[in-house]
Each structure stands twice: as structure tokens, then as C-alpha cells.
């Protein structure tokens, strides 16, 4: 495990939010009191996970290839396509980091895109490669060497929260971009989690973003947010364009929104019986996974 400072503020001005011990690791979840970024400190590194002899896929989902995971990936793709469609054209060069089963890049390849997937889990990488003869690199993104390669679109769905160094990941992706490249990220929203309070801060995730904290991190790495879509509960998406790195201007009191959201969730989850509603398919379709009108671009 690695002690870090906030990758946005580059200081260690935090408040301990949650503490637990799991699988022999002590997790200290903190909130940066400057920007509101939530993260484990120390962060969990890959070597910590490897000692437990659990594959990346099992670490994240708790299971291997199964119908439930397929339904989840289909729903994610259906949510991503509206952001991809306006920029899509045949021949588009696409890189997906953490491609899982390869469902998204398989669909894009069927429409004429040139695709490449990176997936650290051996079982999922093999499954992806068998789906339409996809080109898959079975590796951690940090270990991938593609000198001089540039992509038109880079996808990372429910990936950035796992990295111990998310700023390094975004900067690495920026090196694979040209001026018109888009980056599409999707990640859980700490302002509106769907899971119970005891499961919010998990061993699988190192970082817990709000739309604002991820926007600031992107800005530092050289990405400019173009479109923001926030589901009413669970996750949000950002489509960003390659730009120049900038230091974000963080207003005073930026952490208050995050701290209040975490406190609300601790009683709203049970008071409003979200543990029941979130499992009802029609509620998921017509409320939970609809766009939150409080957020604009």
C-alpha cells in the first residue's frame, strides 16, 4: 500500500471518513478538505491484490463470466452510445482501457471502427478476444507500450476509480491523443451511491469521484470536459477533449457538498428504502438510470 497526497491539490489536508479492515488490509478512507476528493490513503496497489490470489475480474465483480455481468455491460454500452454517436465515423481508432468482455469495442468494430482493448484480467481478456476476433492486450494499462500510437477515442468505463494513480492514467491517455481525441469516462458518483453505506468504500476502488473532482483531475492532465451526464443514482459520464494541462481553480468550501452527500446517504438509504427500489428493473430504467436534471454540461 502506498501513502499519497491528494492528486488534485497535492497536499495532505484530509479528514478520516471511514475505516475498516478487509482481507488483512486496513482501509483508511479520507476526504480532501480542499477539493472534496475521496480516496483510500494509503491506496491499494496491484501487488497488494496479487498477494490475495484474486484475479482483477473477481476483485471487481466477485464472479467470472456470468449473465448478470453481461446485462450490466449491455446497460453501460447503451448509456455510452449517445455520447459516442455524434463523433463516430467508420475508421475511427478506438482504445478501450479495462475492456472487460469487449462488448463496447465489439459493437464499434461491427460498425467499422478500428479497435484495441486493454484488459488485465486473463479470463475476461480471452473472452473478449473470442468475441468477433477483437485485438486485445492482456495487461495493466501502466505496462502497455504503444510508442507513437494515437487514437481518436479512448474509453474507460468504471476503471479510473481502481487506479492507485489516476492522474498518471489520465496523463498516459493524453499521450495517446491528438488534438481532436475524445476521452469517455464513466465512474461511480460519490454524491449519489446506489449501494449501502457499508459498501460505499470498497476494497476494489481507490478513489470516489464527484463530477467536479473528476473534472478538476482531467484539467490537470490536459483534458477539457465537453459533456457531463449524471444518472440520478449510481454513476456519471464525462466526455472530454484533449487540451493543455491547467491548474484547476478550486473555490473555498468545495468539500462541503461531498461531506453532506455522504452524510445524507447514511440515513437516506434506509429511510427511503433504496435497498429495495434499486433492485426493481422498472425503477432502474425509468428513474435510477435517467439523467439528473440538476446537472448541465
- Tell me what the CATH architecture is: 3-Layer(aba) Sandwich
The CATH homologous superfamily name equals Vaccinia Virus protein VP39
Mean pLDDT: 91
Order of helices and strands: EEEHHHEHEHEEHEHEHEEHHH
Which spans of ≥5 residues are poorly predicted at pLDDT below 50? none
Classify the helix fraction into a percent range: 25-40%
CATH topology: the name is Rossmann fold
What's the SSE blueprint?
Layout: E1 14-22, E2 25-32, E3 38-40, H1 46-50, H2 56-61, H3 67-84, E4 93-97, H4 103-110, E5 114-119, H5 122-130, E6 136-138, E7 151-157, H6 166-175, E8 177-188, H7 197-200, E9 207-208, H8 211-221, E10 223-230, E11 235-242, H9 256-271, H10 274-277, H11 281-288
Parallel strand pairs: 4-5, 4-7, 5-6, 7-8
Antiparallel strand pairs: 1-2, 2-3, 3-9, 8-11, 10-11
Helix pairs in contact: 6-8
Structure description:
This protein has about 300 residues and is α/β, with parallel strands linked by helices. It has one domain (about 55-290): Vaccinia Virus protein VP39 (Rossmann fold), CATH 3.40.50. The protein has helices at about 45-50, 55-60, 65-85, 105-110, 120-130, 165-175, 195-200, 210-220, 255-270, 275, 280-290; strands at about 15-20, 25-30, 40, 95, 115-120, 135-140, 150-155, 175-190, 205-210, 225-230, 235-240. The strands form two sheets. Strands 6-5-4-7-8-11-10 form a seven-stranded mixed sheet, sandwiched between helices. The protein has a four-stranded antiparallel sheet with strand order 1-2-3-9, with no helix packed on it. Helix 6 (about 165-175) packs across helix 8 (about 210-220). It is globular. It starts with 13 loop residues before the first strand and ends in a 9-residue tail after the last helix.
Amino acid at each position: 500500500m502506498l501513502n499519497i497526497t491528494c492528486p488534485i491539490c497535492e497536499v495532505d489536508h484530509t479528514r478520516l471518513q471511514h475505516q475498516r479492515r478487509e482481507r488483512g488490509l486496513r482501509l483508511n478512507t479520507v476526504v480532501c478538505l480542499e477539493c472534496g476528493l475521496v480516496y483510500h490513503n494509503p491506496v491499494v496497489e496491484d501487488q497488494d491484490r496479487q498477494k490475495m490470489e484474486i484475479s482483477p475480474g473477481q476483485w471487481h465483480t466477485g464472479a467470472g463470466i456470468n449473465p448478470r455481468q453481461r446485462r450490466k455491460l449491455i446497460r453501460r454500452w447503451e448509456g455510452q452510445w449517445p455520447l459516442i454517436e455524434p463523433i463516430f465515423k467508420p475508421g475511427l481508432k478506438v482504445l478501450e482501457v479495462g475492456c472487460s468482455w469487449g462488448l463496447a469495442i465489439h459493437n464499434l468494430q461491427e460498425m467499422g471502427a478500428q479497435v484495441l482493448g486493454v484488459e488485465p484480467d486473463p479470463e475476461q481478456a480471452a473472452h473478449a478476444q473470442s468475441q468477433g476476433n477483437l485485438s486485445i492486450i492482456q495487461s495493466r494499462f501502466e505496462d502497455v507500450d504503444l510508442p507513437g500510437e494515437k487514437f481518436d477515442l479512448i474509453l474507460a468505463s468504471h476503471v479510473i476509480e481502481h487506479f492507485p494513480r489516476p492522474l498518471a492514467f489520465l496523463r498516459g491517455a493524453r499521450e495517446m491523443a491528438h488534438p481532436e481525441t475524445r476521452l469517455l469516462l464513466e465512474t461511480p458518483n460519490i454524491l449519489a451511491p446506489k449501494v449501502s453505506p457499508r459498501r460505499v468504500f470498497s476494497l476494489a476502488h481507490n478513489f470516489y469521484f464527484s463530477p467536479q473532482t473528476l473534472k478538476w483531475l482531467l484539467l490537470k492532465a490536459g483534458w477539457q470536459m465537453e459533456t457531463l451526464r449524471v444518472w440520478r443514482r449510481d454513476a456519471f459520464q464525462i466526455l472530454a477533449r484533449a487540451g493543455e494541462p491547467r491548474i484547476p481553480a478550486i473555490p473555498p468550501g468545495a468539500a462541503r457538498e461531498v461531506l453532506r452527500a455522504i452524510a445524507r446517504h447514511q440515513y437516506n438509504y434506509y429511510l427511503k428504502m433504496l435497498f429495495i427500489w434499486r433492485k426493481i428493473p422498472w425503477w432502474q430504467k425509468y428513474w435510477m438510470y435517467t439523467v439528473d436534471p440538476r446537472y448541465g454540461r
